[in-house]
Every structure is written in C-alpha cells, then in structure tokens.
Write a structure and sequence with these properties.
Length: 129
C-alpha cells in the first residue's frame, strides 16, 4: 500500500516548537498543525488580548496554507483550543473576520494550558484543489 504523504514547511510561519511538520498534504487534504500566536519574525508571543492572539494564529495558518499552495479560505474544519471559555465571544469575533462566507466546521475546546503561555491555539484541515 503506497501513501500519499508530503510534509510542508512554511518559512512565513513560526518555527515548530517540537518534532512536527507545519502541515502534511495527503490525499487531497492539507492537515495543519496547531498554530499558537507567535510572531514569525521574533518567535515571541504577540501582545494584546485573545482577539489579537486569535488573529495571529489564523495569520500563521494562512502562511502555512500559502506554503502548500492553498488558502485558509478552503478550510473544511478548524479546531480551536482556549484556556478560558469566557473569551469565546472575543475569539469568535476575530475568527469571523477570516471566514466571512461559508465558514468551516469547527469545535472549540477549553484546555488547562497551551504552549508558550498562549490563550488560544488553532489547527485546521484544508481541502486542496
């Protein structure tokens, strides 16, 4: 059985914090690893609230998509992980600016903590053309 599995590395996204690929392309889908709100230029957590962090996560995901020749607008599913479910409204507000038309399926999960002290992390699955 052959596998159609191609790792993707994105220069425009923060370096991976561990032994994982930014994404893996397989069988017409792009599976994106979770992105925390790190500024790719500095490697530091962005300043501001959870809305700012959400936007940075999505910008990082878009950079990974572009490295694979895709667009975050083609996401079929996103997973959002937050350290405070009380920020759900702020996360939704920022998220909505990236998915204005026909947003992907999604789950939002409250977690105890995230890497680098982030308040939010987002992963995605994107359909490739």
């Amino acid at each position: 059985m052959s596998t159609d599995r191609q790792p993707v590395t994105a220069d425009g996204a923060p370096a991976a914090l561990g032994p994982y690929s930014h994404a893996v392309r397989s069988n017409g889908l792009l599976f994106l690893s979770g992105q925390t709100p790190l500024d790719p230029a500095t490697g530091q957590l962005v300043e501001g609230g959870v809305g700012d962090q959400t936007r940075r996560c999505l910008q990082n995901l878009q950079a990974v998509c572009e490295a694979a020749g895709a667009s975050l607008g083609d996401a079929v599913r996103c997973g959002i992980y937050v350290t405070d479910m009380g920020t759900f409204g702020e996360v939704n507000e920022a998220y909505a600016t990236f998915f204005t038309d026909a947003p992907p399926a999604r789950s939002t999960i409250g977690v105890a903590a995230l890497p680098v002290g982030a308040q939010v992390e987002i992963d995605a699955i994107v359909a490739l053309a």
